[in-house]
Amino acid sequence: MRGVRGGGADGAVPTGTKTPGGRRAAPLPSGPGSGTRGGSRLRRERQVLVFDADDTLWENNVLFERVIEDFLDWMAHPTLDRLQLRAVLDDIEAANTVTHGYGTQSLLRSLADCVERLRSRPTTAQELEEIKELAAALIDHQVELIPGVAETLTALGDRHDLLLLTKGDPDEQQRKIDMSRLAHHFREIGIVPEKNDATYRSLIETHGLTPATSWMIGNSPRSDILPARRAGMNAVFIPNQHTWVLEHDELDHTDEQVLHLGTFRELTNHF
């Protein structure tokens, strides 16, 4: 998940925006609900399902990757090959996300910084304009839902409490949420600058969640699965082949509180 750029990085969860027809999350009843790594046991007791957005509900990072591929063609460095150029860009992006966050504007900044580093001079106005043109698709694109998302959320919403937690710039993320037409499925929507251990501890406290019956569902080991588990929640990992390299991390495959699925539709076999 490549979220969008936002300010700050303390991971605090805001009270959020009430969704159409929704309400703020209230304390939820406790009950059994520990995860298993395999099988298809249906959890009939009511659970809280917290969903990531980018690359979980809709495709996102594949658009960034297309822009980066075009950028690497455009750079045409005389001595570095594409893998070496990408390594430089990855380092720059990793540094920029700490201070500037995620998303379109963050990528534009990183591409310009990459030009400046590799050409050992300030980026020209013409180069900045050409970089902006390369990234135009990120600004104008329509949201493409991952197959099965809408109907799966409908089915899950009849049995469980659904929340949305996404990171990045509020305006950019809200635009994607609005375009997806999925907001009505969620009791609460939270847009945060970063998703880390503190984010999930705040989520649990703010909404009175019972960790044993609460699940973070997403494609990112670094932002969705690992910090949620460290906060005591269960997790569902649904990999996306286009997940941003900076969201990769190692998962403990012996952790029985993490459910590994192949597709979004499979959620209805377990919840």
UniProtKB/TrEMBL annotation:
Keywords: Hydrolase
Gene Ontology molecular function: hydrolase activity
Hydrolase keyword on record: yes
Chain positions covered by the region annotation Disordered: 1-41
Compositional bias per record (Gly residues), positions renumbered to this chain: 1-10
Ranges in a coiled coil: none
Keyword Calcium (UniProt): no
Entry protein name: HAD family hydrolase
Organism of origin: Streptomyces bathyalis
Organism lineage: Bacteria, Bacillati, Actinomycetota, Actinomycetes, Kitasatosporales
